[in-house]
């Protein structure tokens, strides 16, 4: 059962809420920034480094074990994330994209690991920092390869569009490239992990309360439903966690490509 059941009161069931994300420092009197999400993010980095070391430190001609798993993940990111957007430049950016995919995936999976049970990306600061990093890379590449004027022209120019329509089209596409794209990159990941964590916490709290805390003939059915829904949603959440890591990395590849090619 999830640790979020502690929010229930002795007399009545209280559904979990935003207090799930209001986490105090790990150590009393310690630094304010050292909270559970930060500790899990650090642990996630260690996990990603360990997995990559185990898979690629001593590569064999015939991959086995961790190397086989690592190469499968690498090929997936290369063929499904990097090449569709970056084409011939895909291999140059695989280090960044592979790291982003693995890091976000481990962040997300932490939400279903027993005793940890907190998806790092459900704390908005973490996906925001990665998205801002990709955003700055996009701007740097666009200006470096095309210059400010050429980059803006590549974004705004649309073949066949009448000159008078640019007064409407140009502000919209510039807002999408320089403002909206940043927010859509991290908000999608954050919102899905946030909502998934709330749902899992709610149904696991229902199951624990009505089965273990206040077992009654009438409440037993509700508690059993809570347990079943927790199991079903955990499986579904794992699929969403993988999907969101893939989408986040795919958008990163698209934004890097837009900087390299100077197009929206």
Describe the protein's architecture and organization.
The chain crosses the membrane at residues 38-57, 93-116, 122-143, 163-183, 189-211, 218-236, 242-260. It is found in: Cell membrane; Membrane. One of its GO terms (cellular component) is plasma membrane. Key component of the proton channel; it plays a direct role in the translocation of protons across the membrane. The protein has 6 helices and no strands. Helix 1 crosses helix 2 (65-86) and helix 4 packs antiparallel against helix 5. The model is unreliable at 1-9 (pLDDT under 50). The chain is an all-alpha fold. It has one domain (3-8, 16-261).
Structure annotation, total helices: 6
User: What share of the residues does DSSP label as strand, in percent?
Assistant: under 5%
Write down the secondary-structure element order: HHHHHH
Structural class: mainly alpha
User: What proportion of the residues is helical, as a percent range?
Assistant: 55-70%
What global shape is seen?
globular
Distance between the termini: 47 Å
- Beta strand count: 0
Largest β sheet strand count, sense and barrel closure? none
Which stretches are low in confidence, meaning pLDDT under 50 for 5 or more residues running? Answer: 1-9
Mean pLDDT: 88
**Rg to the nearest angstrom?**
23 Å
Give the tally of structural domains. 1
């Amino acid at each position: 059962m999830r640790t979020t059941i502690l929010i229930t009161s002795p007399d009545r069931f209280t559904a979990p809420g935003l207090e799930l994300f209001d986490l105090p420092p790990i150590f009393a009197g310690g630094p304010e920034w050292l909270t559970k999400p930060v500790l899990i993010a650090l642990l996630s980095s260690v996990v990603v480094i360990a997995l990559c070391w185990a898979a690629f430190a001593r590569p064999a001609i015939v991959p086995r074990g961790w190397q086989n798993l690592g190469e499968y993940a690498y090929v997936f990111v290369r063929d499904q994330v990097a090449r569709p957007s970056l084409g011939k430049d895909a291999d140059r950016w695989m280090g960044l994209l592979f790291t982003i995919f693995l890091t976000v995936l481990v962040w997300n999976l932490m939400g279903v690991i027993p005793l940890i049970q907190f998806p790092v990306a459900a704390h908005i600061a973490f996906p925001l920092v990665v998205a801002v990093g990709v955003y700055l890379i996009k701007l740097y590449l666009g200006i470096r390869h095309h210059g400010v004027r050429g980059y803006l022209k590549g974004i705004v120019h649309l073949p066949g569009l009448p000159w008078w329509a640019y007064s409407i089209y140009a502000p919209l596409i510039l807002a999408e490239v320089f403002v909206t794209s940043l927010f859509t990159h991290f908000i999608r990941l954050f919102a899905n992990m946030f909502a998934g964590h709330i749902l899992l916490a709610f149904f696991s709290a229902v199951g624990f309360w009505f089965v273990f805390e206040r077992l009654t003939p009438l409440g037993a059915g509700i508690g059993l439903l809570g347990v079943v829904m927790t199991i079903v949603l955990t499986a579904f959440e794992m699929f969403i966690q993988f999907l969101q890591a893939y989408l986040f990395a795919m958008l990163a590849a698209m934004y890097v490509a837009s900087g390299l090619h100077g197009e929206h």
